[in-house]
Amino acid sequence: MRWIRPLSAELDGPADLLGGKALGLALLQRLGLRVPLGFVITAEACRAFLRDGQQPARLEHELSSATAELERATGRTLGGTHAPLAVSVRSGAGVSMPGMMNTVLDLGLTPAATEGLATETGDRGFALDSRLRFLTSFAGAVTDADVSRVTAGHRAEGDAETAARAVEEFVLARCGRPVPADAQGQLRWAVESVFASWDTPRARTYRSLNGIPDDLGTAVVVQRMVFGNRDGRSGSGVAFSRDPGTGANSPFGEVLFGRQGEDVVSGRTATRPLGDLAEREPVVWGELVSALRRIEDHYRDACYVEFTFEAGELWLLQVRPGRFAGGAAVRLATELADERVIDRHEALLRITPGHLRQVRTPRIAPSAAVDLLGRGLGACPGVAVGRVATTAEDAVRMASDGPVVLVRPETSPHDMHGLAAAAGIVTAHGGPASHAAVVARSLGKPAVVGVGGLRVNCEADAVQVGDRTVGAGTLLTVDGTSGEVALGSAPVVENPAGEHLARLLGWADEVAGGVGDTADDEAERLRAAQAVLRRS
Amino acid sequence: MNRPHTQDTGLLLLHALRCAGACSTERLRHITGAEASDIESELIDLGVAGLATRLSGELPYWSLTDAGRAAHPSRIRDELESAGARPVVTAAHERFLVLNPELLDLCRAWQLRSVDGVPSANDHRDAAYDAQVLDRFADLDLRAGPVIGELAAALPRFGRYAARLTEALERARAGELGQVTDSTVSYHTVWAELHEDLLATLGLQR
């Protein structure tokens, strides 16, 4: 086949043809790790689509053949009424463009296939939930709109079938054609929408700012669905082989039981610390920990994976190096050298002056005494301690008596005077480019956004995270680097990687042979060593 | 540009306080484009009607009262329906939502950039980088223009956003770096007010 390759351990080729995601999945298979069967449509097909405005000749035929092969290998049928096959359709470019391109899940769950899945599993609720997930992700991809609005009311009432109809009507109204009743038609349209998502104005802007050529296109990965929403012994999560906040050598991440991966990323639900897996699914945990170790050995670096487990069986869906920053990068490089995974020279070359600039950002000290309330994304580094205010007005009023942490579902211009008065900011929703994040950075205030499961109850003047309730006026500590929100005044450390940094710079001075060790500036000591190493 | 009729200034101010939160009279002038004297007298009327209140402090601010917040939705809905503008505003809101993530990406790029592979605060010492980001702002502004134009054709008060956004961008390009994300008249602030305005006008929750 010209445009499509099976996902296998043998898959090999340039990243700008096959994409980082597919190559990562091939690597996982070479390491003997479990990956859902599937195939990849090359970025060349996307480039042809972008050039000609239509899918290349023969792609449709190849898509049918690849699907037939996947059906044969899995013993299931796409859109079938017995043993239906559902697939995920995900973008996978040669360069990372987080959140820019489309993903469709549970594709193939036509009404008939959904009935088939309900019969096969004996769980109609699961089958309907999966079909609704297909429709919302499909509608989001083909309309570029925020579909959560369309389903919000029905989802709240737990009425998946009405919500599904509302999404179907939305697609028809927006696109002038219905969600295809046949699974192959769904697949063709989904693939086209992923191709097209390469070329949205937003994606073009992102590429322009990050120096990524506009003509690369994206590969598309199609894989058998693994259902994290299957039952109580299923779930999804993300995991780092080491703590990306501190560099400490223990697995770190989040897990959601009974859910699919998009729920982990969306922040709609409070996730659980990765360690919960050890208690609830010890076999999955054991496999995950050994997989992380194997991947780390291969990369000779910390790693990140996305995973789903279905009925107690672990599947890996994505892998990449950890990309640690600041003090965590310093500790990681130093400890990898201690472990003789890399030598000291390589450790020195892995740290940039940019990492050193961030080493001295204050952090919540890792300590058993820290009572962690929740965790989100760090949006503006630094630590703030203050009393909870749930409205901007309260923040302004309370700030005259001492520092305040403003906790909001999300922020809007209404909150500006409260944001200005607060010492720290916490929101339940939004990502690193949300209104709260942008304003916090403009004010230089520590901020954590997108704290999963956080609810702000203005009437009761309290905030809830999971089953814990914290009243206004309670002292909170906010760490805008790690995204941690702790109860009380948590211990703070000014230079969390201090001991590792001192050792690493000692190695730098040895290498530089007295050239750099007179310099006061840490970056200069590192640069002097790197200059020597790069010459040799 | 259409100037609001004098009798609309009260609603204009009520709506500005709803969309932008507590405001000084100077800021209300910037938001509404109305004359300072009109604003003063209309605010006093709103105060007498119990809809707005003056907060004393270092800078005097005006803010909606609970009664003002309660009165706002029906009055702004009446304005929308009597102008027959709901379909236009609904369509423009949807087009705005496509542009909104890109604007937020741009604000993030203005504040943070990757240095040696590490995301770091943009120290604005690299003029070429800043110019590149501002070029993308200008490109976005060109695409936002028609959306605001359609809104203004249906409800003239929306025209202020085009003027304010363009002004912020021009001042930023002339070297006032705070006009992008930092000041109360920055591009990001005005954009966020437009977002809030669309939601408030249509009676939608975020």
From TrEMBL, chain A:
Residues 403-483 form the PEP-utilising enzyme mobile domain. SUPFAM superfamilies: Glutathione synthetase ATP-binding domain-like, Phosphohistidine domain. It comes from the Bacteria. Its EC number is 2.7.9.1. InterPro entries: ATP_grasp_subdomain_1, PEP-util_enz_mobile_dom, Phosphohistidine_dom_sf, PPDK_AMP/ATP-bd, Pyruvate_phosphate_dikinase. Keywords: Kinase, Pyruvate, Transferase. It holds the Pfam family PEP-utilizers. Residues 54-269 form the Pyruvate phosphate dikinase AMP/ATP-binding domain. One of its GO terms (molecular function) is kinase activity. This is Pyruvate, phosphate dikinase.
From TrEMBL, chain B:
It comes from the Bacteria. This is Transcriptional regulator.
